TrEMBL record:
The keyword Hydrolase applies. GO terms for molecular function: histone deacetylase activity; hydrolase activity. GO terms for biological process: epigenetic regulation of gene expression. Keywords: Hydrolase. Residues 22-291 form the Histone deacetylase domain. This is Histone deacetylase. It comes from Hymenobacter sediminicola.
Length: 302
């Protein structure tokens, strides 16, 4: 049975102008339960991790200033959020969810975080609505614990935006391979260098996108031989997305998930999935596309 990290705090501490895209954190669990995709027992409420599990990835100075509300105005503007204690609690909880997902995936093969995928956060700063980098922290956590037997991590970032924070964090870490497939002309305007970047032109459709992914990911598994995979399954690749500028259909987005998760399942590589972005004008389009990711995982690891 799949495990899913979710907490009510995921959705609530944000200012009103950010609330609409965050509704998915409330609606997605409700839809999965209503459809019977998972039982209520699949959900677990994450807990804040020890500070050392955060400062393994983020600098002590940044984390302490973040928690105490001492970011400069410039730093705060770069995150896109006004500071609040509840916002920091939310970000720490999301990171804790991804850490616990990593532990659970080692046991059950897969775990998913309803939130997460905060790939624009750097070691010493936040950007683009990302304050702490949950997948980077979880990768560092696994590599730091010899008993887990993880010596190589592959991060598959298929959000429409490049995982610039993740790329910079691991630029000198050979045990983590970062793969980002993203819109070439989309945020961030200044890209970092992942181990592999595939920059897509505006309007990329299902056939082009899936062909490129099919040509790339199996080769990476063969070359890198990862012990663990983190998958960022943003649905801002949809044609309906107001920020994405790609042209995937909902069916194409599901085929993407089926391919990535199918490879993980077939090769018996534990995988943690985080939701990433989604900004279609209709909340139903966002929730349905995210729900497909969970449906695929539930079918494979039933």
């Amino acid at each position: 049975m799949i495990s899913i990290a979710w907490a009510p705090l995921y959705a609530h501490p944000l200012p009103a102008n950010h609330r609409f895209p965050m509704l998915k954190y409330e609606l997605l669990p409700e839809q999965l339960l209503r459809e019977g995709v998972v039982a209520e027992s699949a959900f677990f409420r994450p807990v804040p991790p020890p500070a050392e599990d955060i400062m393994r990835t983020h600098t002590t100075d940044y984390y302490q200033r973040l928690c105490s509300g001492q970011l400069t105005r410039h730093e705060e503007r770069a995150t896109g959020f006004p500071w609040s204690a509840q916002l920091i609690e939310r970000e720490v909880m999301i990171l804790g969810g991804t850490l616990e997902c990593a532990r659970r995936a080692l046991q059950g093969g897969v775990a998913l975080n309803i939130a997460g995928g905060t790939h624009h956060a750097f070691r010493d700063r936040g950007e683009g609505f990302c304050l702490l980098n949950d997948q980077a922290a979880a990768a560092d956590y696994l590599l730091a614990q010899p008993e887990f037997g993880v010596s190589k991590v592959l991060i598959v970032d298929l959000d429409v935006h490049q995982g610039n924070g993740t790329a910079r964090i691991f630029q000198h870490e050979p045990r983590v391979f970062t793969f980002s497939m993203h819109g070439a002309r989309n945020y961030p305007h200044r890209k970092e260098q992942s181990d592999l970047d595939l920059a897509l032109p505006d309007g990329t459709d299902d056939a082009t996108y899936l062909s490129l992914l099919h040509d790339t990911l199996p080769r990476l598994l063969q070359e890198q031989q990862p012990d663990f995979i983190f998958y960022l399954s943003g649905v801002d690749v949809l044609e309906t997305d107001k920020l994405g500028h790609l042209a995937l259909s909902r069916a194409g987005c599901r085929q993407r998930d089926e391919f990535v998760l199918g490879l993980c399942h077939r090769h018996q590589i534990p995988v943690v999935v985080c939701m990433g972005g989604g900004y279609s004008p209709r909340i139903a389009d966002i929730v349905e596309a995210h729900a497909n990711t969970f449906r695929v995982a539930a079918d494979l690891w039933s």
